[in-house]
């Protein structure tokens, strides 16, 4: 069984999508539609912009979304048995699986980027990657720091031994020192705009909830394994509720991949820029085939 997976923020790179635009007419049409809907030339920033240009939240998220959906459209007879997306990638996965239109997906992603930027401005915050500790150790240390008055939580369960924490600057700093003392191989500060997938994203969640509720969703052609609990869903109402919860809940990527494998996935195909997700899949289960298209 084939599982198609879609990357999230951080997969961007200068020149992304240019080859798709030049070689595939359906992809070209998506890029042009995106430029029209967003009111600026996203494709020009993607093809000719610098790394700094692409790091702007209002650019990054739509760029990865459009690129990922365009890749899926170039696959002959695209028939996934299951799909999943890492954070932002859930929106790409839902469009690729036919649960929502490209137009609605893009507008939600643009709204999501704006809402997250707003939340970052209200609550200045950050994230850090923790390498070489069990999830339970990281969770316990984050809970200790939070109990002392700061905010820091486990945010991205990327693969065994790699977990991202998210919270206030002081909370992440204190947790980082405690995690190093507990034996973490490395704790790496991330260059991000704020504490994504933490309670500090509540202003974004509240703002995005109304837009998601108004968006028309239908059952996807296959189950989508959603970040909030790593379980498969096809019911549109449940999918919406999980999309809303996603902004303040952790990305359970390790658990999602493990569940897809348990339910029969033998091949994982990454749709979008970069190869980060296929690398994580191999770290979660070295015997599974993981590739990109």
List the helices and strands and how they pair.
Layout: E1 2-6, H1 18-23, H2 25-38, H3 42-48, H4 51-54, H5 57-73, E2 82-85, H6 89-96, H7 102-122, E3 125-131, H8 135-147, E4 152-159, E5 162-168, H9 169-181, E6 186-189, H10 202-214, E7 224-225, E8 232-233, H11 236-246, H12 253-262, E9 267-270, H13 276-284, E10 289-292
Parallel strand pairs: 1-2, 1-9, 2-7, 9-10
Antiparallel strand pairs: 3-5, 3-6, 4-5, 7-8
Overview of the structural elements:
With 293 residues, the chain is α/β, with parallel strands linked by helices. It folds into two domains: 2-120 and 199-292, Malonyl-Coenzyme A Acyl Carrier Protein, domain 2 (3-Layer(aba) Sandwich); 124-189, Malonyl-CoA ACP transacylase, ACP-binding (Alpha-Beta Plaits, 2-Layer Sandwich). The protein is built from 13 helices and ten strands. A hairpin with a 6-residue loop joins β7 (224-225) and β8.
